[in-house]
Amino acid sequence: METQMLRSHFVEVDGHDIHYLSNVECVNNASTNPLMLFLHGFPENAFAWEPLISCLSERVDVIAPDIPGYHKSAPLAQEGDYAVSKLLARMATFIERVSNKRRVILVGHDWGGAIAWPLAAFHSHLFSHLVILNAAHPSTFTELLKTSRKQREKSQYIHQLIGDDAQSTLQSTDFKLLKNMLGESLFSTHKEYADTLLAMWNNKRSLSAMLNYYRNMPQLVPVTDADEHELKRIHVPNIRILIPTLVLWGEQDDAFEVDILDALPRYVDNLAIKRHEGATHWIHREQAMWAANHICDFILNRE
Known about the structure:
Structural class: alpha/beta
Radius of gyration: 18 Å
């Protein structure tokens, strides 16, 4: 499928527009194509999925939104509207609106994955399959924060993103932190996509919305050397997934320890995990064909 077939659409959910890309003008029940919905992460937007979408068959119906507040999707009214529980309700409504009662293959990366995990748990009737790319399950992530100093150390960047001066610091440093996350090469090799990112980051309302996701995390990441009393106070949620789930994982991820995968079978009943030893957190762009092949095999039950 050629990525230029993707067209922009908008749908209003609770008074706020959500922008999405799709290769179909209107999702209809007559289609026999799998319907795949892609949720991007921080600090990207819906165009992050273009390399992966271009590797998938043209017989796939695609919906790829800018998650609320990002890029062309309207910022929400209040900071508290970015709480996970409210985001789940909003995104479930969005999916109901755009899917035309078809069950969806839900694909999520990073923050999109952080939303996709509980969406699949609490709104499972909307989905046939779940595909996660380098996004920690909320339960295994929280467990590792309690038990792994190395994971706490890797997660300290979050404190930079929730500080009172986070927005001004990002702007005054020409978004050095965000560019380092994504890799400087992105800005020379994918110029058109990089331009959409820079325009979004330079929009004060969009940047504030992006940071509000972190400000509304259910639990604050403890400091690296948190004491035993603080760690014991951390509550591990019980997020169980009953639909077939594929996890694709780049083992060179700077944000997560690979050990975060070990406890997944306790929370996911029907699970397949595929690891790529050379890929990083940005596996959806770095290893798009590898990911697409595994997704197709998973959907068609060929594994």
